[in-house]
Amino acid sequence: MSSGAFRSRWVRLTRPPADLASERRRSYQIFIHIYLFAIAAHLIYIPVFAAIDIVALSLLNLACIAANIVAIVLHRHGQCPQALLTKLVSATTLIIATGMALGDETGCEYFFFVLLFEVLISDLARRLKLLLSLLVISLILATEHLLFGTLGNWPYSSLSRELLYSLNVVVTFVLFTFIVLQVYAITETTERRFRIDATHDSLTGVLNRRAIFEKSERYWQAGHPFALLLLDADHFKFINDNHGHSVGDEVLRHLAQLLGRTLREADFIGRVGGEEFLVLLPDTSREEALGVATRLRNTLSGSPCRLESLDLAVTVSMGLALSSEGDKLRDVVDLADRRLYLAKSSGRDRLFAQGGESRETELGEGVTARLLHETPSADNA
Ligand SMILES: Nc1nc2c(ncn2[C@@H]2O[C@H](COP(=O)(O)OP(=O)(O)OP(=O)(O)O)[C@@H](O)[C@H]2O)c(=O)[nH]1
């Protein structure tokens, strides 16, 4: 099997089932890896015990592989406690049998600590976790003092005992390291996914309303100059009503993609309403922001939203405001909003970068007309 095929099978096996609750996914991924690491470790011991002629222990390792496979199946079906218990019982039986067959000083009791660690990081109920931990600790003491010391009988040279001891130490160490690294990596990935979910709009992939406002607030607090461009798709209700909501969604994704392609790396895009986007342009003068808006408009007019049976032309109206135009961030946002409103009321598919200073803009058609009259057509990009 090529390494690519092996990796894709590994990924498929360790990927949580789609219907698994999100708070269970992290633990699922960690434990599937643990079962797989355990299978790999048992595979190492089968030839080792066969080589020193203790076939029963080879068979017991084989049985543990089967138990880990059962644990994987149980875990995939959401039966996590049963899965972990299957693994614990089989591993404990093997450790005790190995200790009894080979005596102490072979280091097999170290595997109890791996089991204890697995119990502690599992998502079992706290009481069950404590109970199982106590059980594992009792087993460590009992086997160390009662079983291994009395029943052990190493029939080979002391060199092979030392080799087995070294192997056990190395395998315990490797298991610990792999499990800890895996826990860390999966926790990181899960946290990153939750962070992205918390800050991004699930439909378009751009920042969500809270995240874009927080980002703007941070620039505002730092006294960093910026421009805010508020965009709203024109006649979006018409698109929804005539082509369906899923086409509307596709148009929103198309818009977000175009914005992403047109803007700089340093700019931020957020979806702040149904069909409304806010773009934060750091260190951008009015002229530069006008250039960005013009570029955006040109890109949009040259790139209709391609759907299966039609190309849908989309236009946007925009309101631009600079951070220097307000005493508070809220003022700047409101100004961009009023200019967007002006762009809408004066025919759509245009940008307003001036006017709208008076809050009266929001009061109605008559006032809007007055403001429009006061706002020269040069405002339109
Ligand atoms: N497909 C889709 N539609 C949405 C979403 N969020 C809001 N809408 C719709 O967007 C439409 C917005 O309509 P309006 O506010 O009247 O705006 P408009 O039709 O674009 O008109 P103007 O803005 O004046 O050009 C409504 O029909 C909402 O139901 C969404 O996530 N997906």
How would you characterize the overall build of this protein?
- The chain has 2 domains: 3-197, no CATH class; 209-379, Alpha-Beta Plaits.
- It starts with a helix and ends in a 7-residue tail after the last helix.
- It has a 5-stranded mixed beta sheet with strand order 2-3-1-6-7, sandwiched between helices. A two-stranded antiparallel ribbon has the order 4-5.
- 65% of the residues lie in helices and 9% in strands.
- A hairpin with a 2-residue loop joins β2 (268-273) and β3 (276-282).
- The model is unreliable at 361-381 (pLDDT under 50).
- It is built from 13 helices and 7 strands.
- The chain is an alpha+beta fold and 381 residues long.
- Guanosine-5'-triphosphate is lined by residues 203, 232-238, 240, 245, 248-249, 252, 274-275, 344, 348.
- Residues 203, 232-238, 240, 245, 248-249, 252, 274-275, 344, 348 line the site of guanosine-5'-triphosphate.
